[in-house]
Design brief:
The chain is mainly beta. The protein has two helices and 43 strands. The strands form twelve sheets. It has a four-stranded antiparallel β-sheet with strand order 3-26-25-24, with no helix packed on it. A four-stranded antiparallel β-sheet has the order 4-5-6-7, with no helix packed on it. A four-stranded antiparallel β-sheet has the order 8-9-10-11, with no helix packed on it.
């Protein structure tokens, strides 16, 4: 009898609670930093210790596998495909094939960059092209290595320079030694050289006093951030400034010692052990290994941090990589087969988190109108179109290209944040067709634009010079112009080039790369550097610059000419 009485009593007691709960609405989707974490999905499976992700113009991602030395190409819903193997990788403990980066001018040069621990006993940086992956050129070497604390994240900054995060290689003295590349964030040219504007003359060191940096990101104002592993107590997110000393080994976390910069966020090592870092929507996203979660860190107007929020906690295990894909989704990579996790059959995986749409945005942007081509040379053409409109805002455009005047399929060759795009690396005397489509913050795609057909020239002059500029990003008081493509449409080589253009009133150039800039009044003159002055027939090179402008001014430089 008692076995029947107890359930009846429980139901009697629960009845009022159930009645009260009947009218409670369902919880809203967990939207943090512009992404809907309730709709996260596993998109790729079967990877072996993925470490870094870098995106190609067609929207696919390259993923490095730490222990195998392979570079895998991945697309959502498809099996990973190997496209390269980095030679000479030594994988032991935390070392192996680590960072990947794709050249910001990949459509023109095809360069892929990889950072790894080598069988020669150092960490080094190579670059190669997927068309010939066995040909790998070392552009920087000699970074101290160890089984732990190798850093490894590499990324191109908004200035077009390549930033490399290194660890102290298990030797704390390296971090404060400016003559050692270990325990640093390094800044170098795409060919490994020392760029102008670095804080220490003749040195690639950008910041120092680091224990083990594995995440790099920039916000919409060009401010740089990095994640850093603590020793036993505090992990960090730091805002990185040129020449900054971040305190290791004297400081772990926040400290009051003079001359050291404090982190903007700290966590216990059990909560975080942060590796990859990404930025979107005024929020940093840090992938946590030991913490098995993704930390969303809101940024303040001054570059500080609000209260971090943990997402995906314990759902997918150890998280190593995070990036915002060209599809507008947040991509997160696991690291459960690294010897410290508890892998499931699908591991390792890539999880994608869609942008928040409020559950109601299914409206696609309007199709771009008025697609036109101009400035066509033997190797390049510039496309322009009327901006699309959308109820939540257009986030970018996909550029599609097909070979010939008819037939063949359109494939994506690039993206643009503005209503213009310069396609380079074309073949002289060839015909191409172009279309453009828009994307919004909810991931909706517009219909494609009308088609424009372009036929490149066959050269004709012994040598020549053209300059076309693309606006990479803008904010309220500044912008980055990159790439400025300098091309030789002629039939013979030229040695040296000079590009001139005009700044709007009140604008000031604050930095440049791959060219030497001088300013006279509003006229800017950009001259080639030693490594990019020679242009063969049909060849091109690129440079870029950053500038400030008065608040409310939307003007951009104009009148680009080349001689």
């Amino acid at each position: 009898m008692r076995a029947r009485v107890i359930p009846a009593l429980i139901l009697t007691l629960l009845a009022p609670l159930l009645a009260l709960g009947a009218g409670v609405p369902q919880a809203h989707a967990q939207v943090v930093g512009g992404f809907d974490f309730d709709r996260a999905e596993v998109s790729v499976t079967g990877l072996q210790v993925p470490w870094a992700m870098a995106f190609l113009p067609d929207g696919s991602a390259l993923v490095s596998e730490r222990n195998t030395g392979r570079v895998m190409q991945v697309r959502p819903g498809q099996a990973p495909a190997p496209v390269a193997t980095v030679s000479g990788v030594s994988a032991s403990g935390e070392s192996g094939l680590l960072g990947l980066a794709v050249s910001p001018t990949y459509a023109q040069d095809g360069w892929v960059y990889a950072y790894f621990t080598s069988t020669s006993g150092d960490n080094r940086l190579v670059r190669f092209q997927l068309s010939a992956p066995q040909t790998q050129t070392v552009i920087f070497s000699g970074v101290p290595s160890a089984a732990v604390h190798d850093g490894g994240r590499i990324a191109f900054g908004p200035d077009g320079m390549l930033y490399v995060a290194t660890g102290d290689a298990n030797n704390t003295a390296n971090a404060q030694n400016l003559n050692s590349p270990a325990g640093k964030i390094l800044r170098m040219t795409p060919t490994g050289g020392v760029p102008s504007g670095n804080p220490f003359a003749g040195s690639r060191v950008w910041s120092y006093g680091h224990r083990n940096v594995q995440g790099l990101a920039w916000d919409s104002q060009g401010r740089m951030y990095a994640t850093e592993f603590g020793q036993n107590t505090w992990d960090e997110v730091n805002q990185i400034v040129a020449g900054g000393n971040y305190g290791w080994p004297t400081c772990e976390g926040t400290c009051s010692s003079g001359g050291f910069r404090n982190p903007i966020v700290t966590w216990t090592t059990a909560e975080a052990s942060p590796s990859g870092l990404a930025y979107a929507n005024d929020t940093l996203f840090a992938a946590a290994l030991r913490g098995q979660r993704l930390w969303a860190v809101p940024l303040t107007a001054g570059g500080g941090a609000g209260t971090p929020v943990a997402e995906l906690q314990g759902e997918y295990g150890r998280l190593r990589a995070v990036a915002v894909g060209p599809d507008g989704w947040l991509w997160v990579g696991t690291s459960n087969r690294d010897g410290r996790g508890n892998p499931v059959a699908q591991d390792d995986r890539i999880i994608r988190v869609p942008p928040a749409s409020g559950g109601t945005d299914t409206q696609a942007p309007t199709a771009p109108a008025g697609l036109a081509a101009s400035g066509t040379t033997a190797t390049a053409t510039t496309l322009t179109w009327a901006a699309s409109t959308d109820d939540v805002g257009v986030t970018g455009y996909d550029i599609l290209r097909a070979p010939g005047a008819s037939g063949g399929s359109f494939t994506q060759v690039g993206t643009s944040a503005t209503a213009t795009y310069t396609d380079t690396g074309l073949t002289a005397g060839s015909t191409y067709r172009y279309q453009v489509r828009a994307r919004d913050a909810a991931g909706n795609l517009s219909p494609v634009s009308a088609t424009v057909t372009v036929t490149t020239t066959t050269g004709g002059t012994p040598d020549g010079c053209t300059a076309t500029a693309t606006t990479q990003t803008q904010w309220g008081t500044g912008y980055v112009i990159q790439p400025v493509t300098v091309a030789n449409p002629g039939t013979s080589a030229r040695n040296g080039w000079t590009v001139t253009f005009t700044l709007p009133a009140g604008h000031t150039v604050t930095g440049s790369w791959n060219a030497a800039l001088t300013v006279s009044g509003r006229t800017v003159t950009a001259r080639n550097t030693a490594h990019n002055g020679t242009l063969g027939a049909g060849q091109s090179t690129t440079f870029g610059f950053q500038a400030t402008r008065p608040s409310g001014d939307t003007g951009l430089p104009s009148g680009y000419g080349c001689a």
